[in-house]
Amino acid sequence: MNPLPGWRAAFRIARRDAVRAKGRSALVVAMIALPVLGVTAADLTYRSALPTKAKELTAELGAADARFSATSMGPVKLQQMPDGVIWGTPQGAPDPTPEEQERPVDVPAAFPEGSRYLTERTAPASVTTRHGITDTEITELSVSDPMLRGRIELTEGAYPRADDEIAATEDFIEASGLSVGDRVTVRGPDQTYTLTGAVELPADLRADSLYALPGSVIDPWQKTADRDKNVLPPQASDPRWLVQSPTGAGVTWQDVLAANDRGVVVVSRRVALDPPPDSEIPMAAMMGDPYNATNKALTAAALTVAAMALLEIVLLAGPAFAVGARRSRRQLGLVGSCGGTRGQVRAVVLAGGAVLGAVGAVVGVGAGFGLTALFRPMIEDYAGSRFGELTVRPWEILGIAVLGLVTGVLAALAPAIVAGRQSVLESLTGRRGTRRGSRVLPVIGVTALGVGVAVAVYGGVNGSTNLVAGGSVLAELGVLGCIPVIVGLLGRLGRRLPLTPRIALRDAARNRGRTAPAVAAVMAAVAGSIAIATYTSSGAAEQAYDYTPNMTPGTAALMASDDRDNADLPRSRAAVEENLPVSGGRADIGRVWAGSDCSVYYEEENGCGTLELVKPTGKGHSCPLKGKGAKELALRISADEHKRLMNSPACMDENYTMVAFGTDEHKIVIGGADVLDSYVKLEDPAAAKAIAEGTPVLLNPAYAKGGEVTLKATHIYNARDKKNRALHPGKARTTTDRLKVYVAPDRYAATPGIRMVMPEKTAERLGLHVKEYGSFFTLNREPTDAENQSVQAALDQAGNRAYLMTSEERSRTDDDTILLILALFAGVVTLGAAAITTGLSKADAEADLTTLSAVGAPPGVRRSLSGFQCLVVALTGVLLGTVAGLVPAVALRLTDLRAALADMREDPMQSAYTPIVMPWETIGLLAVVVPVLAGLLAAGLTSSRLTLARRAG
Asked: Residue 349: its pLDDT value, please?
């Protein structure tokens, strides 16, 4: 028997039913099309932005065939791999002698005969801007040559054509405030150029550099430096040559081997794209074949995401097909009464899924192409590189479309099975029958939940991410199995509630087949978002803890750049105060040293004095995590105990200590109460009083014993230090002084760059030398690029005798953006699932609403009922998803903790801090804002107007 005619009729019925119920059909098509759209857009974006070998070569070579460059080894025979990245001398060959390394390499002699070439050199430089001065990189390269198309493109103006012209990247122009036609001066040689055009590097849109013609910057700069010894010479790179072969066939592997014999390394487009066999590569025998599991990991992640997306669609679209099948039960009953089998009834419902799945797939793929093309410039700017061309993999797009079709069929599978089981009499009379909820499913769900949590935690403790993933999935499936019972229990919660929330809860409990999948869909989306958000927040907290600031946040420091007596600090201080957002007064500091100044007399061994703040030994002074017994202690303590020890004053600067402000290792600065207030942030009248009376303020209590510190000074005077040598004749002497100090609380031991603040009169009383060195400033915000450039220019005008240090913010990540995207994704799914369930319940319970109207319920009941139905689904799904999402997040953090403890026990000074931080903002947004918003939207979009209904029967 040929089954085709039966399926043909089923598809005809499904198509007509989809056209008849346009609203429900559009809803299902949208649910299928949206994920297909997202996956299509993601695939197109990923493939187009993927840095393929061809794109990388274009970014490096432009339209050239190869790049030739010499090495520091001189004209000796080399070997290289086809990519030109790895090279070296042949195995067993002797190292080149210094004489050989100094001999020049004739690189152009290695080019294929008749080749055309361009030279390229770069040099860092300080240049003027509209705001002041900034540092950048200047590249000498004929950027107008067609050989560079694809690597550098003109976006505004014209390419430089003369020696006094220069081009800049768009990022440089934006940061500097310049525009095409302005003048740019290279500081040092004071060479001025006209900015003729703006260029971009398609592979690096954030590049910040300048481009000039070969020989127009570096050579004149070098000549100026040769004439004027006050001008520093350019730190130019070795030249490189971009080569284009005359035949158009590219640079072959034989050409590369010939160049290697001359001591030249080659990056050839032809060789890199089509490498020779290993038998022809002399260096291949020395290289291994490392195993890379990245592709497998990416494939596993992609399959996991695809499976979760498929589950989301099935859970969301399934109730729609169930309601559709219920509303078409009379039609399905007629099919059965005309001799249709249960299989043919199921075929009608499945055909509906196939029809709507196919439409959704086509719509989603088309919309994915359209939106990717529309938002392409925005995506490229965010990624920092141009696509070049939109890369389409037909089989991948076809697979995505088939996924949408299969999803529609799977979503209709369960309703098809239910429809096939109904008797013809029930279908024709409209009776639903009664089915008791499964008693086995909740037991299985609770068991799976408990086993999944145990497996995930066990995997986390033992460092197995596979067990973590498996246990998390099992735990989530266990929660899914418990959802029908949880939804059923909701009906009992409404006994004491007003009318509409009571009806909403009872309707959700009565129609579990409609409510449970929507709750499950919300739970699945929220669980994934909460898991990633929790892990991301925890990782961000760990990075923030490990970050060591270079200065106290919100401060700037101006320090003298030389030790001459005429260092003009007042003018430099005025430059800072006029150009940076300084709040309050400044705090001046000085340097302190013993004997001859080591910053001046450092050439001879033992040619200058030393100053040491002696650290006592014993408990509270010696760090137990360093030295003898440290590893044994690390094996016994927990991560929290290790954190407490690492943050103690005794261990604070044992692992890393920043030396700045001219203090050397002792980290003592000369200053007063204003230093404590502006930089140390120690607002204690007792400390200010102590330092005013000549008592030093110690910031690290581990160096004090009995309220005193030991200061050891070696007074060595260099023979070239004639002035001080005359005042201190005789042999070098060592002094040890006990000083009474004010001991600051433990938390101030982490003050960057300072261990003790000493009054000037105390240092002079001890026979130490003091000199004004700089100032601290408090900033009310982070300086802008324009302010940084203007202050550098002002310091240059002030004599360039001082340099500026600002507090570096912790490197910013995309964590906040990721959390926002996750919250928005989960919020959209929650709103969609709640809206779908509300719409289906409204369509499915029209008779109940008509009865309410008939017994005198006011019109507003319809609105409030829809709102509460939406709120029930959203809130239940979000709460369950939050609990389910914590399982993988906590388990993965346990895996990280295990690795951190292993590293700490190998090196006790390594941090083992692995916090678990809840993303309360994300949870609050999902648990409060989204459900309330869903309820309000449902109530606001529901019509309260009564409609006349024909009497049933």
From this structure: 74
